[in-house]
Each structure stands twice: as C-alpha cells, then as structure tokens.
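ingest -> fold -> write
write: protein_1
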Amino acid sequence: MISKEFKNALKTYPEHKYQIAWKAGISPGVLNHLINGHQKVPIGDERLLRIAELIRFPTNKVFLTSQEE
C-alpha cells in the first residue's frame, strides 16, 4: 500500500503530476491508477520509487509496511 505521506508529497509538489509521470517513464493515466488504488501496487514498485526520487521523497517512506496498514 502507498503511504499517505507520499501521496501528499506528490499532491503538493510544484510540478504537475503529468510532467512527473512522463519524466518517470509512465503515462499520467498509469500514475493516476497507481495513486488512486485502481491498480494493485506491490511494495518496491519501481515506477513509484522513480517518482519518489524525482520529487526528492525518501524511498523508504513510499510504501506502508504490513504493521502500518
């Protein structure tokens, strides 16, 4: 599961989400599906880790651990 902290960081990042998605090598639609839970995301998903790096968010805080869910 994706952390709320990561979702908030992505929302408040000054660059548009579609620009971040293209820079990460995914379409904006895929990013939307990942963030909104329309597509299951395994812990360690490379797409979200690339996005985290682009927005300078700690990659170890992107996903919730099973204890935090």
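write: protein_2
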Amino acid sequence: MIWVLLVLALLVGLLAVPWRGEVLWRSASLPRITVRWLFLKARVFPRPEKKRKKPKKAKKKKPAPAAPKPEPKKPKKKIDPSNLGLVVDVLASVKGAAGFLLRNIRFYNIRLDMIVAKENAAETAIAYGKANAMVYGAYATAKNFLRIEPPEIYIRPNFTAGQGDTILEVHGKLTPWAAIGSLIIGIITFIKRSRKAKN
C-alpha cells in the first residue's frame, strides 16, 4: 500500500512539473522552437537535419516496363450531410478545450528588439510610428485574454541603414495537469453536444 501511495505521489509531482517552450525568431529566417521538460530538451522546429547516407553504387538500369493502361476514373464521393453535425460538435469541443489551454499557458521573458529602417528619413519616421502602434496595440489586446508578463520592447529607428531587423524571443510554460484538463473539457463538451443532437 505504501508503494502505491509513493508511486501516486511521484506521478502527481511529475505532472506538476511544467513543460517549457522557447520561440526565437529573427527577420528573414525561420523561427526556432524548443521544448523542455525536466532534463529533457527537444527542438520542435526546424527539425534537426539527419545525417546523409553515403550514395550507393549505381545499378544497371533495367529496361522500363510497358506503361500500364490508364484506370477509369472513380466517381468522387459526395459528403454525407448527416456528418456535418459531427464536424460541428468536434470543432466546438476543440474551441472550448483550446481556450482553456491558452488561459493556462503563462508567457514570460518576452523580448522584442526591432530596428526600423526605410529608404529615406521620412519613410523611416512613418514606419517607426506604425511599428509602435502595432506592437503596443497587440500587447494591449493579448494581455486581456492571455497570462502574459510585461515584455521588454525596444523599437528604434535607424535613419542611415536601408533595411531594418527584428528579433523576438518568447518563453512559455504549461503544466501537464492543464493539458489533461483541456482534453477532459473537450471530451465532455463533445459528449454533451452529441447527446443534445440525438435528443
């Protein structure tokens, strides 16, 4: 009995350890997404390149077989209208679960470093004003429905360079309990909607 309690306590403790994610993006390049949990670390995007295998020796080409006769085209299957209700139920369930999941992700260590530069000083000044309005407007909107810590935002105009640059770094964490709760909410919502549709 004691061993069972110890295993359950260990399991609960492990599920309380949050998953951590990191997104690093620089303009004119692909974002880099890394996920960590305990001592484990994995790069989600872009995937690490696999080692290339040594090219095999070319074999003698066999004569190409005769082209097969074209098969008659099969008629396209029509969508059954009775399945549309199921699709709607699934989408509604995913929407509720995704909302719960997003509300439980905490975003922190957010840093935006943006250098605004255009062809001339006038265009740079206009672009600088637009960048400030866009960035701070997006932050004001996001903090209304996301758990987000105040970010470090640095926006600077450069009147001498012809091209700007942007570096964005975002960290987030989510406990496995929240992910499990999101899955349960999605399943319960789907079952409830399915029962209402039958009645």
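write: annotation protein_2
Residues 106-173 form one domain.
The chain has four helices and seven strands.
pipeline exit 0
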